[in-house]
Each structure stands twice: as structure tokens, then as C-alpha cells.
Amino acid sequence: MRQYPPRPAAQNHKLLEHFRHVFQARIAALSRGNAVVKIPSLEHLYERRSDMAYHFKPELFIQSGGATDFEFPQANFRLNSEEICIIPKGVPHGETTVSNNTPFENVVVCFYSRTTTIHLARQDEEGRPYATDILFYRTPLFQNLVSLLDLSVSLFQTNLPHASSGVKGLLIALFSILIDLISADEEAGTPESQRVYQCQWEIRNHLNNSELSVQWLADKLDCSANYLSKVFHEEIGEKVTTYIARIRLQNALAALNDTTLSVKEISNACGFRDPNYFSRVFKQKYDVPPKDYRRRIIEQSNKKEAQPKVVLGDYEEYHFGYDKDNNLIKGV
User: What span, in angstroms and rounded, lies between the C-alpha atoms of 34 and 271?
Assistant: First the structure.
């Protein structure tokens, strides 16, 4: 069980300075053109494996000491000191620490429930990384940060001649926002707020565990279930169990939109024990069964846009020189 004691102000300032230095160094390396960026291929998405984890939003790793051996279902690679890694959403991965010339350490940026987390990872007794110092931030730019990483992944996977330049620019933008974020020092200040953020952190990392419960979380956070339920409801405005169910359904919705996984596979990936139960609660929430929802998405993607592509004087152009009735627009 890991505990999360509050940090003294001086220690907190030192941690912020360390993160700021790491991000600024990566901006400098990207600007010089000598930064190394590694991203695994988009295979085996949302596939449950006993020795690998996946998340519903991307993760960012910056190796600041030693190295990390990343394992994926299809391949492995080593992230060396000062290198950058983006783990795309849904990609199963395992991590093993390597201490060579310097002790193992990396900085990890994660996204969950409108909260951006930045933490240090160090080596445990079994050679696995574990989070030590964690900062939690709420920012209106949350979705922008996620989108910057998602677009970086998409560009990296292409054969476009200037894809690497695009990834470089996106990551410079992302690191710049992160520096501003920690410079503003918007970390929640009360012990109760920190406990709630830590609870959300644990939910994020164990969402596909069907045993996830208030008591399980309370044991992880070294507090009573009643206390955790009380402060969580006061801070978030909903019960822990309601929150877990809502996030699971949101992730299922995203998986139906973004993957070709079956309803049963999505049910398992999101932590539902029974696919039939998943279908029932999904319909209760969204007024449509998962299979019908996916069918609607496919039908919607095949529809032509209702709005014209461009308005040309008295004409409305709907696709490359044709009007709404598919007649050629003269003079175009």
C-alpha cells in the first residue's frame, strides 16, 4: 500500500523547479532538432493482458535518469535518458526500470477526469517504476493537451514527409503549456482535495478491475471508506461508485467511437463483469444499446455534410464545384 504524505512547501517548490527544468530542456532539444521521440504502433488496442496496462487517454514519458524498457504485444523498445515517449490511448504496455550510469527516474504526464497529473517515477524493489511525487492540476486546456498528444501520435504513424516537424511543433506547444501550468502552481491546497485527486488517480489506473470499490480505494489510500466517501462527495459532487460507473461508460462510449472492438471486449476493457449488464446500463445512460449506438455512428460518418463547403455569391458549393442537387456550378 502506498501512502501520500503532504509535502513541505520547500520540497514542493523544488519538485516544481525540477519539472520545469525537464520540460524546458525538452523544448530546447526539440528546437535544435536532436530530440528523440518514440511512439509504439497502434496495435492490440484495448486488449486486456495480465502483465500490461492500457489507458483511455495518452501518456507522456520523459526519461530523466537511467532507462525504461517498454514492452508491447507486438514489439519492445528502450527509452534512454532525455528521450521522449508517447503511449497512445488503448495500447497495452509494460515497463521495467533500468539503472545504468544514473539511477532510474522519469517524469510522467497523465490525463484523467479533466485532471492533468505530473509525477516522478522511481524504481521499486522488483525493478518496476512507481509514482512518488504527484502533482494534480485542473486546467481549461485539459482537452487541448490530450489533443496535442493524440495528433502527435497520428502524425508519427504516417509517412508524410514533414510529419516529424509537425510532431516537434506539437510537443513544443504541449511542453510550453505544461510549464505555464506548473508555474501558476494551481495544485489543490487542502489535504481533502489531494486525497480526492489521489482517489481519481487510483481509479484511472485500475478502472478495468471489476473489484474496484470504495473499500478497495480506501485501503489503497490508507483511510477509512466512510471518510473517503464523504470528502469525495463534498469535492466532486457525486458518490465514488457513481463516479466510477460514469467514467466507465464514458470510456465505453469513446471505445465504440474510436475502435472496432466488440461490445464484449469493450465491456471487459472498461471493468464490467457481465456484457449483458454493461448493455443494460449503457442503454439506461444513453437511451440506446451499444450495438445500435455504433450502428448510428457508422451511418452518421457516411452522411454528407448538411452545410455547404463554401458559399460563392448566389451559389452554394457542396463538393468541389457542385451544388446541393449535384449539378455542376458554371463558372467555377
Answer: 41
What is the rounded average pLDDT for all residues in the chain? 86
Provide the β-strand partners of residue 207.
none
Residue 79: inside a domain: yes
Same domain, 53 and 26: yes
Count of domains forming the chain: 3
Task: Supply the angle between the helices 240-258 and 225-236 in degrees, to the nearest 10.
Answer: 60
Q: How many residues does the chain have?
A: 332
What range does the domain containing 245 cover? 191-301
Exposure class string for 13-42: b at 16+ Cβ within 10 A, else e: eebbebbeebbeebbebbeeeebebbbbeb
Q: pTM of the full predicted structure? A: 0.71
Q: Are 62 and 88 in contact (CB under 8 A)?
A: no
Shared-domain flag, residues 51 and 179: yes
- The 3-state DSSP class for residue 105 equals strand
Task: For 163-187, write each residue's pLDDT tens digit.
Answer: 999 999 999 999 999 999 888 754 4
CA distance 26 to 282: 42
What does the CA dihedral 80, 86, 89, 94 come to, rounded to 10 degrees? 0
The Cα–Cα gap between 283 and 289 comes to 5
